[in-house]
Specification:
The structure is a homodimer. By secondary structure, the first copy, chain A, is mainly α. Chain A has one domain: Arc Repressor Mutant, subunit A, CATH 1.10.10.10. In chain A, 45% of the residues lie in helices and 5% in strands. The first copy, chain A, has 6 helices and 2 strands; from the N terminus they run H-H-H-E-E-H-H-H. In chain A, strand 1 and strand 2 form a beta hairpin. In chain A, helix 1 packs across helix 3 and helix 1 crosses helix 4. At the A-B interface, helix 1, helix 4, helix 5 and helix 6 of A face helix 1, helix 4, helix 5 and helix 6 of B. The structure holds a DNA duplex.
Chain lengths: 147, 147
Amino acid sequence: MAMISQKAKYALRALIALARAPQSEPLVISDIARVHRIPKKFLEQILLDLKRQGLLTSKRGKGGGYVLLRPADKITYGEVLRIVDGPIAPLPCLSITAYRKCADCLDETNCETRQVFAHVADATRKVLDQTTIADAVAMPRHELLAS
Amino acid sequence: MAMISQKAKYALRALIALARAPQSEPLVISDIARVHRIPKKFLEQILLDLKRQGLLTSKRGKGGGYVLLRPADKITYGEVLRIVDGPIAPLPCLSITAYRKCADCLDETNCETRQVFAHVADATRKVLDQTTIADAVAMPRHELLAS
DNA sequence: GCCAACCCGATAGGATTTGTCAACTATACC
DNA sequence: GGTATAGTTGACAAATCCTATCGGGTTGGC
């Protein structure tokens, strides 16, 4: 029902890359794009979004590039997903950050679907709002066996 | 990121309606569609899908209609969503019922995104695979205050 | 045999996703 | 100040998915 978008995957990949980079060493778009196999122009849009929302800053010209604006452990998956994919809630009427009435819903308080998916939304947020980019960076890396 | 589809809402609404109907009294598509404000032709497709997957049975001709094939407490939200919206997992590589490698993923075991969203998928499934149509039917109905 | 009701395939408009392109602007460095 | 670097902007295009709609076909009951 609910695949996350390619855009979100790219955004997370890029942020993890930025978090792994030595502090104050800006990464340029082209490098991130090449190394992580992200279409460059698409990545530009994504990083711009993340910048506008205050996750990143950038410097132009030679020696420029993108840098995280906050420590990686202060950037949650939930925040990133909300920026690139919009609300996390599976129904508009369950979004905290962007509530909207379901178009055809007459009686929200009695909507069974809403009540069930409220639990889903809670469970999802519990994970996404507590997991940070730093957690991702710290994940164990299994050796890739050479063949 | 992950709204459930209109189709899923319709499917759930219809199933709840069928679960509320007195046993062995088939409901006809037109009635369900009218009462629950679902486009009739669209509902036909949905009910056919649900029938093909064994949730419903139907009888043609006069006095016909649709009937639940199993007690409502044996039909989970997860099952319904998988039928109408496809896999529940937020990444193809996390689907139990329909695993597929992510197109651009080189090293699945080390994919940070995968590891994080595995938790999301677990949490979601824990809700959806344990909640049944019967739970929905039993939900408390608040009085709608007349104005 | 005829009507009710389900069954099936095609199709279409719109939205969203995913990406591309061309041109512009700011910065560093010589 | 010129030039190469690198981010910024806005428009646009292909592909896919969602949400239906349409017309007819089939089956069963009376």
